[in-house]
Design brief:
Elements lengths: L24 H26 L4 H26 L11 H22 L4 H8 L2 H13 L5 H18 L11 H20 L5 H19 L9 H24 L5 H8 L1 H14 L5 H24 L15
Helix pairs in contact: 1-9, 1-10, 1-11, 2-3, 2-8, 2-9, 3-7, 3-8, 4-7, 4-11, 5-7, 6-12, 10-12
Length: 323
């Protein structure tokens, strides 16, 4: 999903990993926009498959594709003898925590996809910056100013407009992407603590392996033998989402987060278009208002980050969605 700059953390005692490859904002913007197409396509495809298989099984198929991509990348890296092994981490404990948070976020998001329109669940997932703001205080020791808190609360208001609690339009399933966003925010904050210790490929490899291990332990309880078409679709979800994440990682090495964040909101547009084309869902005016409020909150937060001149970390993850 959309990209998000992470709060600053205490300086690492290790040498910093390579940061920006150069000041190439147009290339970074193009990569982010393309990544949102990949991620929206992954979400829409997952929604289709969750109508046929349990969410846990869909997640397992997705992670199978994820693991396959990362293992091939590791073999290529080993063949070219470039850098340390992606299986060797300086912070293995944090990598495991991050991997568990990601798979938890994915499962909750998939559960919500069974009921909610793609555009709606995508928009709700953008609530994760609010949780990042809250978690950055105890985890990263950051001081959060009043303006950032106000922007976060405005974003929460946008989510409430979409969810409409207390009305006949409210669906209990809307709670699922909100909790998913909480797990996602935890993964984002842990990612910031890992940056400077592990390379992005190492982080992605550990995420794939940890998530695959967790899902392999629980998928037998809901297993329903998929046909070849379902296996192919599940693998495609893994390949497409992994490609999207990788594009985001590269984009954040070409331009600062404050430049890229506004363009990440194009994912809501793609999600709405795909939802209309494949599921016949049309966002209503109330949802449109909520999306505008959420986007406004995110854009202001990006502006504040630009003013603070916080450099974008490598290996940044999208802010919501199935990851």
């Amino acid at each position: 999903m959309a990209t998000l700059t992470l709060p600053a953390a205490a300086p690492s005692t290790r040498p910093a990993l390579p940061a920006l490859l150069g000041d190439q904002p147009l290339r970074g913007i193009a990569l982010v926009v393309i990544s949102t197409i990949f991620l929206s396509s992954s979400d829409a495809t997952a929604k289709y498959l969750t109508g046929q298989l349990a969410g846990i099984e869909v997640a397992w198929l997705r992670y199978t594709g994820f693991v396959a991509v990362m293992l091939v990348a590791a073999l290529v890296r080993a063949h070219l003898k470039r850098g340390a092994s992606p299986f060797r981490s300086a912070r293995p404990g944090l990598q495991v925590v991050r991997g568990i948070a990601l798979v938890g976020s994915a499962l909750l998001f998939l559960a919500g996809l069974r009921v909610l329109p793609v555009a709606e669940i995508t928009a709700i997932a953008f609530v994760s910056p609010i949780f990042v703001t809250a978690l950055s205080i105890p985890v990263l020791g950051e001081t959060v100013g009043a303006r950032r808190w106000i922007a976060s609360l405005v974003g929460l208001l946008g989510v409430l407009i979409i969810v409409r609690p207390g009305t006949s339009a409210f669906q209990a399933a809307a709670i699922l992407p909100i909790v998913s966003a909480l797990f996602w925010a935890a993964a984002l904050v842990v990612t910031r603590k890992i940056n400077g210790y592990d390379a992005p490929q190492t982080t992605m490899t550990w995420s794939a392996l940890v998530g695959f291990a967790v899902l392999s332990a629980v998928v037998p309880f809901v297993w329903e033998t998929p046909n070849l078409t379902q296996v192919a679709i599940g693998a495609a979800i893994g390949f497409i989402s992994t490609a999207g994440h990788w594009l985001v990682t590269i984009a954040y090495r070409h331009a600062p987060a404050s430049t890229l964040v506004p363009f990440s909101y194009t994912q809501i547009v793609w999600a709405g278009l795909l939802g209309f084309l494949f599921f016949g869902t049309v966002p209503d005016a109330t949802m449109g208002l909520g999306v505008l409020v959420i986007c406004g909150s995110g854009l202001y937060t990006a502006h504040r980050e630009r003013m603070r001149r916080i450099p974008a970390p490598t290996g940044v993850l999208p802010a919501g969605g199935v990851r």
